[in-house]
Amino acid sequence: MNTPGMARLRAMRFAKDAMDRDWSDPGLDLDAVAAHAGYSRYHFVRAFKATYGESPGQYLSRRRIERAEELLRSANLSVTEICMAVGFTSLGTFSARFKKQTGTSPSAYRRQHGRRAAAMIPGCYAMLFTGGFKEPPPASGSPLGKRPEGTSGGAPLPDGEERNNGEALRQRR
Amino acid sequence: MIKSLAITTVWSTDQERDKRFFIETLGFTERTDMDMGEMRWVTVSPPGQPDVQLTLMRPDGPGLDPESREAMTALVNKGALGAGVFSTDDCHATYAELKAKGVEFLQEPQERPYGIEALFRDPSGNWYSLTQQRESEELDMSKPWSGSVDDAGDDS
C-alpha cells in the first residue's frame, strides 16, 4: 500500500523523529525540520498538523516540556538551568508553556514529584506516551483512520496556532 | 503450560527491504522465506537466539478488511508502533556500528536505571529499544537518572 498518502506519512515521521532526537539542538528550526521531510516549510506545517494533530512547533514545545518534567523530577538543577537545558531562552515563556501543558508551575511540579518518579519506565515507552499522537479535537470524528489523506484534518485552527511555535522553531524572517 | 515465546510479529511495508535490513544491517539470520501465493512468509532471528523468530508481516496483507489495511499501514508509516527490545552487551559500540550503517536512531545511548538504552527504527518505521542491561540485573537508583542532563550541559 505505497500510496502518496502513505509516503507523506513516512515523510512526516522523519520530521517528527528529528525533533525527538535533536530537540536540544538550537539549530533545529522549522526549515531544518521540514528538510528532514523533504517538504517546503509552508506545506510541511499543514501536512504535519494533519498527520499528528498539532503543528511542528507545538510538538517540539511539548516534547521539551516533557523533558523538563523529567529533569524536575530527577535532576539537581535550578528551574532556570532546566529552562535553558531544554532549549528555552526565556524563563517567562518556559514557565507559561509548562503551566499550560502540566497545569502547574515548574517549582510546584518539582515539589509534588521530585525524587519520586525516577526514570523507571523504559525510555522507549516514555517517549511513546508523550509522542506525537495527540488526540484530535472532538469534532473531527473517529480517532483512527478517518482523516482523508492529503487533505486538511478537521477544522482549520486559527492562524495564531501555527505561529505558536517552540523556541527552536522560530521562523526565519 | 506455555514454555516460551517462539514467533512475534513485525509489521513490514516492504518485506524484501526489511528482510535485507534485519540480515545485512542488524546481522540477523534468515529462518524462513516462503512464497505462499497471496502472501510471503518471512521470519528472521537474532543471531544468538534461534528459538525466537520475528515474522515480517505485511500490514496490508490478506486477513484484513480494506479499512483495517489502510489504518494499519498508516500506523506503521506514522511510526506509532514499536516491535520490541533488543539486548546488547555493549550499547555504545552497537549504536556506533549500526549508526555507521545508516540505521535511523531516535535516541543516542542514555543511562537508565535498568541499563544503557538507545532507540532506533527499522525501514518500515517500527521502533526498537537497544538495551544493555546492568550486570547486576538490578535497578540502579543511586543517580538522578536523566540522560539529558549531560547532553544539555554540553550544549549550553
UniProtKB/TrEMBL annotation, chain B:
It comes from the Bacteria. Residues 129-156 are annotated as: Disordered. Transmembrane segments: none annotated. Gene3D superfamilies: 2,3-Dihydroxybiphenyl 1,2-Dioxygenase, domain 1 (3.10.180.10). This is VOC family protein. Residues 4-133 form the VOC domain.
